[in-house]
Amino acid sequence: xxxxxxxxxxxxxxxxxxxxxxxxxxxxxxxxxxxxxxxxxxxxxxxxxxxxxxxxxxxxxxxxxxxxxxxxxxxxxxxxxxxxxxxxxxxxxxxxxxxxxxxxxxxxxxxxxxxxxxxxxxxxxxxxxxxxxxxxxxxxxxxxxxxxxxxxxxxxxxxxxxxxxxxxxxxxxxxxxxxxxxxxxxxxxxxxxxxxxxxxxxxxxxxxxxxxxxxxxxxxxxxxxxxxxxxxxxxxxxxxxxxxxxxxxxxxxxxxxxxxxxxxx
Length: 265
Fold this sequence. Notes:
Blueprint: E1 7-11, H1 19-29, E2 33-37, H2 40-45, H3 48-55, E3 58-59, H4 67-81, E4 85-90, H5 96-99, H6 109-132, E5 136-146, H7 160-182, E6 185-191, H8 197-200, H9 205-215, H10 223-234, E7 245-248, H11 259-264
Parallel strand pairs: 1-2, 1-4, 2-3, 4-5, 5-6, 6-7
């Protein structure tokens, strides 16, 4: 019950494979109350009502590209939960260029603008709105989800690599300002490739997944394990951790080569 009495918002739960879904389930077990949110179309397409029933959470739709939607979400969440927030999970990402199978050297720039807005700028929008509304208690925690393609080349990860790089930069920059102003901590988790609906949409995902599994001394980190890591960052046990990009990838990020990869060549 390390989140007992804490209140929060969880973005991005779509179905049982979603990391956000796993975080919501774990947060409920650990005693938290929270609001679930996603885009209206995602709410219609997903199974979020099932999760809301199981966890006793309210659902508030919000388009993360619209400031007025985020303002309404934050204000309504505090009303529903009966006070200021203690944690926020930003698990949001989408690329139209990937969906349209456009290569990195042949991007549609309007699609790219949308990718950046949804996958990275939305994080700044959420943080800025929370700060303006003084919506997060001191020592509160905000976590977003990244991937190592922000720092290394994964050709088929496409423009999402650029979006994740911006996401990690926002984590550092806004983490500084929010820490100074309100002692709110902001971190990103660089997770192993994970079999979610979003991850599965990336060309060559099975290759990513299998390679990372062979490279990582502990193997790929699961969505369930990522959820537990998120919970630890929401808790009071990590009060002095902020502005970090935290690798949760079974050791992949610091492994040059593994015996499994060498012997498989």
